Amino acid sequence: MLPSRSRLMHDLPSRRGGWGGASRERVVFRDPAQHLRVGSPTGVPKPVPSDLLADALRHTRTPLGRLVLVLAAVHAVPAHELRTLLTCDLNLARGTLVIRRGRRRHTLYLEELTHQITADWLDYRHRRWPPRPILASSSARDLHSSLTIPPSARPCSATTAKEGSARMGRMDVRSRNHVRVTGKAGAPVVMLAHGFGCDQNMWRLVVPALERDFTVVLFDHVGAGNSDLSAWSPERYSTLNGYVDDVLELCRELALGPVTFVGHSVSAMMGVLAAVREPEAFAGLVLLAPSPCFVDDPDVGYRGGFSAADIDELLESLDANYLGWSGAMAPVIMGNPERPELGAELTSSFCRTDPKIARLFARVTFLSDNRADLAGVRVPTLVAQCSSDAIAPPEVGAFVHAQIPDSRLVTLSATGHCPQLAAPEETAEAIAVFAGAAR
Question: Fewest CB within 10 A of the end CB: N or C in the chain?
Fold first, then answer.
């Protein structure tokens, strides 16, 4: 067995003396170590065997501890560099972590294990410490108490249909959907509903402009954000009807009178179905970047934006690698490539959603066909589409407008599929003008 490096370094001075004696005895002609200077030896990082790392991870109980362990063991980040990490150094969307070394920067590319442990820690951090205004920076020592991220989903613990139904009967719907009511008391009510892979935090830039004149209701769909995930079951949420039931229950529970329901993306169709079922609950609908069907239907000349093969490939990719799919799709959905921080935020939001819930919700989102339901809407409706949207092209907004009697169509100058983030002022103004007129 070869001696270890530490043993060699320890024995080196005596070995040098040995060379000198051998030279005097003419055993060798020259001391090969005569110019070697030996200072205080420092250890060179060595890879940790995978079985040892796996065992250490099993015995590390906290998400922060697991993150520190994997950064040290896999990426050889020393303690003094861990203590200088800043929250802005982590980019989960790109899978990178910047290490600050004086004035230099070293970029770590997170492999699958570190990426997953980082995402798990972000999930835990948000559940343990709810959101607050973003801090400028923090060290790894208090990273878990200072990083602010949009609301995240907790790990799913799905119940059976029977258990879910019993639980739903006992549950306060305000807690179930993490309802928040803000704004002007007694004013007309605007209810904001987020889309796939998101939560109510997506409306944060729009709310300040609305709450001056309206009562604003925010909530998370079950399975998203800070909703009660014990209420989620595949039986209830395998179609849009489960989400529609939730919306109507919220309207009844809050008892705020008819609301202007603002549904983004897939939530627009939830609003359509809810208004068809109980029109008296709604003063109006704002359908923001809506799509009643994402799949093209060439037989009737309908363009949804995707072929059936496109959707099949999209869902297969999501099933195979949800985190990878999120990183690839979120920037496309967001658009605005000149503002990469928007795509990064949406990617992070997707990554915080439990993959099991996301897979089912994606099928509900991309495979539903609600074109035939549009004609049944009898409440005032604003269709607000973006000028350029890879997910819901302008033809889709025009179709929705044509199918809903007496609806209005407005094309926002915003681009991408999330105007509430890309152009919050314009989006808030469109909502406020319509909701004010719908009083």
Answer: N
